[in-house]
Design a protein that fits this description.
With 183 residues, this protein is an alpha+beta fold. The protein is built from 5 helices and 7 strands. The protein has a 3-stranded antiparallel β-sheet with strand order 1-2-3, with no helix packed on it. Strands 4-5 form a two-stranded antiparallel ribbon. A two-stranded antiparallel ribbon has the order 6-7.
Length: 183
C-alpha cells in the first residue's frame, strides 16, 4: 500500500531488504528530505514521517479567542463547561467567509461543540436557541451523544454585557447554512 507525497521520487530500491528510499521536497528552496519506507511492514503500524508545509497564520486568532472566552466567563456557551484547556473562541461567520475578528462574531465553545458547530451538526438561531441536526438524532451511542441531543431547543449562554453578545445578522447567516445542511 502506498500513500502519495507529491512531488516524490525513488532514490534507492533494495529488493533483498524490501526497502525503498524516497525523496521529497515541498518547494525548490527547501532541502530535499529522504524517508525510508518499509514495504513489508506490519499492517497496523507505520513509521513516523514528516513533510514541510507553508501556512498562513491568522495573527488575530489568539486575540479573538482570548477576548471571546473572557466575555463568556471561560465557560462553554452550550454546556457551561469551565475547563479552559477545552475551550475555544469560535467564529460564527468564519474568517474564510469574511467573518470579522470581533467578540460579537464569536461564541465560546468546547472543542466538541465547536467541531459539531462547524460540521453543521448543531446550529444556533438568531434568537439564541440551539438546534440539533437530524443526523445526530438518528445516531445511537452513549451519554456523550445524548448530551448533544439534549441541547436541542435550549438557549446558549451569552455574556451579560449586551455589546459582547452575538450579533443577530451573524447568527442569521450561519443558521441559514445550518438549515441548508439539514436537507
Amino acid at each position: 500500500m502506498y500513500e502519495a507525497i507529491w512531488p516524490v521520487w525513488v532514490r534507492q530500491f533494495n529488493v533483498e531488504e524490501s526497502r525503498v528510499l524516497l525523496a521529497a521536497t515541498a518547494t525548490a528552496s527547501q532541502e530535499v528530505s529522504a524517508a525510508r519506507v518499509e514495504l513489508a511492514s506490519e499492517p497496523e503500524s507505520r513509521e513516523p514521517s514528516y513533510y514541510l508545509v507553508e501556512t498562513r497564520q491568522r495573527n488575530h486568532q489568539a486575540w479573538f479567542s482570548s477576548r471571546t472566552k473572557s466575555a463568556y466567563g471561560y465557560r462553554c456557551a452550550f454546556s457551561g463547561l469551565p475547563l479552559r484547556d477545552l475551550l475555544v473562541g469560535a467564529h460564527i461567520v468564519p474568517d474564510s467567509e469574511g467573518g470579522v475578528a470581533s467578540v460579537r462574531n464569536g461564541i465560546c465553545m468546547s472543542s466538541l461543540h465547536h467541531t459539531a458547530f462547524d460540521a453543521h451538526l448543531i446550529g444556533v438561531d438568531p434568537d439564541l436557541r440551539i438546534h440539533v441536526g437530524q443526523s445526530v438524532f438518528d445516531s445511537r451511542d452513549g451519554p456523550l451523544l445524548e448530551s448533544l441531543k439534549d441541547l436541542d431547543s435550549r438557549s446558549i449562554r451569552v455574556p451579560m454585557e449586551e455589546s459582547l453578545q452575538p450579533k443577530r445578522e451573524y447568527l442569521e447567516r450561519r443558521f441559514d447554512q445550518f438549515l441548508q445542511g439539514q436537507t
